[in-house]
Each structure stands twice: as C-alpha cells, then as structure tokens.
Design brief:
Blueprint (H helix, E strand, L loop, with lengths): L6 H11 L7 H7 L4 E5 L2 E4 L4 E4 L2 H4 L8 H13 L12 H13 L6 E5 L2 H18 L7 E5 L8 H6 L3 H4 L9 E4 L13 H19 L4 E6 L15 H12 L2 E5 L23 E4 L11 E5 L1 H11 L14 H34 L7 E7 L2 E9 L4 E2 L6 H11 L2 E2 L1 E3 L3 E4 L7 H19 L2 H6 L3
Parallel strand pairs: 3-14, 5-6, 5-7, 7-8, 8-9
Antiparallel strand pairs: 1-2, 2-3, 4-10, 9-10, 11-12, 12-13, 12-16, 15-16
Helix pairs in contact: 4-12, 5-12, 6-11, 9-10, 12-14, 13-14
Bound molecules: pyridoxal-5'-phosphate.
Length: about 450
C-alpha cells in the first residue's frame, strides 16, 4: 500500500473499509473522517496541515502530552530486545514486574496486586470476573448481582456495557443483563432532589440501600463507581459522596469497585481521584493515562483481601483469566517512562494548569448559552441551555455540542461533544498557561459563533 496516498484517496479508503469505534456508521459515510498526522506537546496537526490545540488529550488519555522522546526510545529499545513475553504459566519479563511494583507502591491502601489488561473495558470486565470468583471462593456463590450508577460508563465489552448506562451502548445489543442494576446518578445540575450536597449524598446512599434491600443483601456482589462520571458529560459528585458510598458498601458487605480509567494518573490532580477522599476500594481499574495513550494498556488493582481470597479459592488450580497481551512488555516500559515524566513535574504542572482551566471556564458561566460549568483539575465540561433559569436543554435535533465541536475544530481547538448539549475538556497535563488561556479564549469565540447560528438563536430565550 502506498503510504503517500493523496488525502482524498485515504478518505475514500476510510469510508469503504474502516469501521470507526462509537461512531454513526451511516453518518460517517456521509461526513467522512478527519485525519491526524502528527503531534507535539499539546498540539496536533491534521492532514490539511492545520494545527489544533488538543483540549481532549486524544480520548482523555494522552495525559503526558505528545512527542516525548524518552518514551519512544524506551519502547523501541524494548521492541528490539524483547518485543513480546507472555505472563501466562508463571512466565514473565522485567518491565511488567517493575511496573506492578511501582504501581502498588503508589496505590491507595492495600491495593497491592496488579493484573494488566489492554485497556479500560477489559479491566472492568476482569473485575466482573474477579468479583464472581471472590464470592465463590468465600462460599457465597449467590452473591451475583451487580449495581452501578445511571449515566455511568464502564466500557463496551458485553458485560461492561451492561454496567455502563448510556443508551447507545445498550440499544440493540441486548444489555444490560438481568444481574446488572442501577441507582440514580448524583448529577448535581439536574438532580430531582436538588443540588444541596448533603441531600444528594443522602439520596444516593438511600438509593443504594433500597436497591440492596430489593435484591437481597445476600445476593449483591459489587457496586461500581467512577469518581467523576466522564462519558455522560463530566458529572462531578459532591465532596463526600464517594466516601459515603464506599462506607455503605463496607457496611453492607458489598465489594466497592472504583473505575479510575479517566480519573487516574493526575487527571483531577492527585495520582488517583480516590485519594481526594482517602478511600481504598476493593478493586480499582485504570488505563488511558497509565501509558498516556502511547500504547494500549490497562491495570486492575486488587486489594490484599480480594487477591488472597481468590488465591485460596483457586488453590493449586489456575485462575482462568488472562489475555495474550496481558502485561505486554512494550506497554509496560512505556508506562514506566510515563510515570517518570508525571513525577518529574507533569503532575505538579497539571495541578496548576487545572486550577487555571477551571477558573478560566468558570468565567464563561455568564454566557447566554452556558447553563453549567463543572469539573476538577484537568477535567471539565460545559452544559449548554437555551434558558438559563429553567435549565432548558438545547433541542437534541440541533446537536449543539457537535456544532460546537465543528466550530472549535475550525478555530484550532479539539474538544469533545457529548449528547445532551454538553462538551468537555481534558487537556494534556503538559499544557502551558498560554495554551490553557487559548483553550478558554477559543471556547469563548466558539460559544459566540454558536450564538449567531440562526437555528440556535431561534430556540434561545429572549
Ligand atoms: N471505564 C471508564 C470510566 C471509561 O471512561 C472508559 C473509557 O472511556 C472505559 C472504562 C473503557 O476504557 P477503554 O476505552 O480503554 O476500553
């Protein structure tokens, strides 16, 4: 295949052959693809030579930013020396062992045991299997019901998509399964119980208790949360929410699984968002920032008691769970290098820049189209409305966030459009103050341009 294909030919090949993840297949045939060619720092260049500030760090994963030679060199050296080694059957290689130890060292509490996956979905799926194995090992095989939170996202394997609560991942796929249940989200901006933090926390605790009572405590195996619900539009719980949910699970003898696929590795400030409330989950899932997107990898962190219980339950038998590419040595060296970058200043910079980003975006709250600005650290979202007092959403058919995405792209900024007129930010932690200011300025320009859009004006109050 000629790699110097003219861009039009590439677009045509894409239409004909490349099935894009989480995209409208039909819409894609009509719209075509935007092709990225290269990147450095927080800036990406597309096939037309246009430079864009990546306000979403790829898919909230390139936390370290693009173009770090130390990472590239480490991966190349590992590929030359030992491109692959299995972790099956008591085999191993150096990098994943070192990485597991480094991660355990930094993990909250006794999350001392690391199982490597290829990304976030199979990390979540692995926990679903480990939870079942755990309760079997404890002689309570009837504990087989799982609870997660409305508007949550836990990946798109069959089982994980059932814990996810976004319609596009359910409709037509036959999930959720009958062992997967939900409680309402804490979604502060549109919570039927109001936005008072104590009331919202009490309502979530009550909802969890009620769901457990309905299913029978002896049947409930695990409860899944994201410290911040990412894919439904960066829904930040009130302070104290995650601790209250963790404590309730401990009291009810339910495993508590924190899905830190987005929030891990400095995205909200600390290494893991769980640290902000000093909680220790029974298991924790990570991916994305683990390798900063330079190569695929996820990790499940298992606490001492979960690990020991499974080990004892299995006895001399193999615990039959793993993937050919679990603990891939190239991804492991990448993760080790990325960790050095994070701790060599990027986490610190991310905290400063996160503060700047939140303040900058909060300054857009008065804009006539902006209903809510929310986030923590280098993770944020803006929710658009047509009437600020009534919080009226922009009619779905106007696809407000997608319009914003298109305009932002034309203005040299990549953001993420979510359904329901929400768009999000998750810039690389390496951003400079000027880059953060540019993200905010361009967002303001794009909001102003959207305000001039006749179709949007027509639905705007006043
Ligand atoms: N869990 C959460 C909280 C996520 O946000 C994601 C992806 O965005 C996943 C799981 C799935 O991860 P992946 O896309 O790497 O499979």
């Amino acid at each position: 295949m000629n790699t110097q294909l003219h861009s039009n030919a590439l677009h045509e090949l894409d239409r004909q052959h490349f099935v894009h993840p989480v995209s409208s297949w039909q819409g894609h045939e009509a719209r075509g693809v935007r092709i990225l060619k290269s990147a450095k720092g927080a800036t990406v260049t597309d096939s037309e030579g246009r430079q864009l500030l990546d306000g979403f760090a790829g898919l909230w994963c390139v936390n370290a930013g693009y173009g770090h030679e130390s990472v590239v060199e480490a991966a190349a050296e590992q590929m030359r020396r030992l491109p692959y080694a299995t972790g099956y059957f008591d085999l191993g290689s150096e990098a994943p062992i070192k990485l597991a130890a480094e991660l355990a060292d930094r993990a909250p509490g006794d999350l001392n045991h690391i199982f490597f996956t290829l990304g976030g979905s199979d990390a979540v799926d692995s926990t679903i299997r480990f939870v079942r194995y755990y309760w079997h090992s404890k002689g309570q095989p009837n504990k087989d019901q799982y609870i997660s939170v409305e508007q949550g996202y836990h990946g798109s394997t069959s089982a994980g998509a059932g814990l996810t609560a976004l319609p596009a991942f359910h409709d037509g796929f036959g999930v959720p399964f009958n062992w997967q249940h939900k409680i309402p989200s804490h979604y502060l901006y549109r919570n039927p119980v109001g936005s008072d933090p104590a009331t919202v926390i009490a309502a979530s605790v009550a909802a969890l208790r009620a769901k457990v009572a309905e299913l029978g405590q002896e049947r409930v195996a695990a409860f899944y949360v994201e410290p911040i619900q990412g894919s439904s539009g960066v829904l930040v719980p009130p302070k104290g929410w995650i601790k209250a949910m963790r404590d309730t699970c401990a009291e009810l003898d339910i495993l508590f699984i924190a899905d830190e696929v987005i929030t891990g590795f400095g995205r909200t400030g600390p290494m893991f968002a769980c640290e902000e409330e000093g909680i220790v989950p029974d298991m924790m899932t990570t991916a994305k920032g683990l390798t900063s997107g330079y190569s695929p990898m996820g990790a499940v962190f298992l606490s001492d008691h979960v690990y020991q219980t499974i080990a004892e339950g299995a006895g001399p038998k193999a615990v039959g769970h793993g993937f050919t590419y679990s603990a891939h040595p190239v991804s492991a060296v990448v993760a080790l290098e990325v960790l050095k970058l994070y701790e060599g200043g990027l986490f610190e910079n991310g905290i400063k820049m996160g503060d700047r980003l939140q303040k900058g975006l909060a300054g857009l709250s008065d804009h006539p189209l902006v209903g809510d600005v929310r986030g923590r650290g280098m993770l944020a979202a803006i929710e658009l409305v047509t009437d600020k007092d009534k919080k009226t959403p922009v009619p779905a058919e106007l696809q407000a966030a997608t319009r914003l995405f298109d305009r932002a792209w034309d203005n040299g900024l990549i953001i993420r459009a979510f359904p329901q007129g929400v768009f999000g930010f998750a810039p690389p932690l390496c951003c400079t103050a000027d880059e953060i200011d540019a993200i905010v300025d361009r967002t303001k320009q794009v909001l102003d341009l959207t305000l001039e859009d006749p179709e949007i004006r027509a639905v705007l109050r006043g």
